[in-house]
Each structure stands twice: as structure tokens, then as C-alpha cells.
Specification:
Layout (H helix, E strand, L loop, with lengths): L2 H20 L3 H33 L10
Length: 68
């Protein structure tokens, strides 16, 4: 089995494993939710900033120097 197929299999199995952990009790579910929140929110913020930087890099500047 190659590393790529192992990675794909683990990604497919991941939701079931998380559901098993979250179903153990309310504390585990809460910890799982906060863990997901602490990973997803910064990832979205980084993606937003990277997208903005890429767009800024590709668009021309609108600032023009005017001489008196």
C-alpha cells in the first residue's frame, strides 16, 4: 500500500473516528468542537489574507504621482 492510498484511507476514516470520540461524553464533544474551532478559524483567516495578498500582487496600483 502506498503512502498516498494510506493518506486517502485515513481521510475517509477520519469522520467516523471523530464521531466515536465525540460520542464518549459531553466533555469530549466540547473539546473536539473547540479544537476544530481553534484550527478552522485561523486557517480561514490565513486563507483570506493570502488571497488578498495574491489579488493585490496581480492588480495594478491606482496611485499616481502628480507633480505641481
Amino acid at each position: 500500500m502506498s503512502a498516498i492510498s494510506k493518506l486517502i484511507d485515513s481521510i475517509i476514516d477520519m469522520p467516523g473516528e471523530f464521531a466515536d470520540v465525540a460520542a464518549q461524553g459531553p466533555a469530549e464533544g466540547l473539546l473536539l468542537a473547540f479544537g476544530a474551532l481553534f484550527v478552522v478559524v485561523p486557517s480561514l483567516a490565513l486563507g483570506y489574507l493570502a488571497l488578498g495578498a495574491g489579488i493585490d500582487l496581480l492588480t495594478p496600483s491606482k496611485i499616481e504621482i502628480q507633480h505641481p
